[in-house]
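Recap from last week: sequence in, structure out.
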Amino acid sequence: MTSAPIISTNAAPTMVEEPHQGVRLRLKPKAPTTGYVDGGWWPRSRDLALELPGLLAVLAVRLGRIERVSYHLGDWGPVPARLGVEGGTVRLGGFRAQHADTIDVLAARQRVTLLVVPPETSAQAAHDALMTAGHPSNTDDVEALLKSRPLVPQIVGSAGASAASEDEAESAQQRWELEGGHLR
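Predicted structure tokens:
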């Protein structure tokens, strides 16, 4: 049984249980980085406190102990100032100056900037954006990464065409998981 995250305004860190679903993440390989982002992340909701524990657990393998996460204030709902995760407390900071649709994850000696693909994005468009953002030679900016394909499935006039769109989205989600986008 999982509980909802506890969000408080006091200085105590918020403890959040690890999500049961895999993290939808694609990182560039360890190498000198190129471009505006170091990879992409497709969260399932706009609740950063709920989404971060799984992401930070995966990133800690590469970065070590994570100390801080910064995000754009307009991208997320209410966020606590600190988040308790396995291994310690992570400070969270929202900034209007932070580029929209990105988060920065900071460890002692490294920083990773991730493209945040909006949760409402279709599976195929999200897959394409993540694969492009995580490609070693990619130098596209955030806008180009998100505008390369329509992010939200288009509303179609006839019921038959809409059902075909849903089948296409389901098929894309299955391909995503089969190709390793869904970490277990």
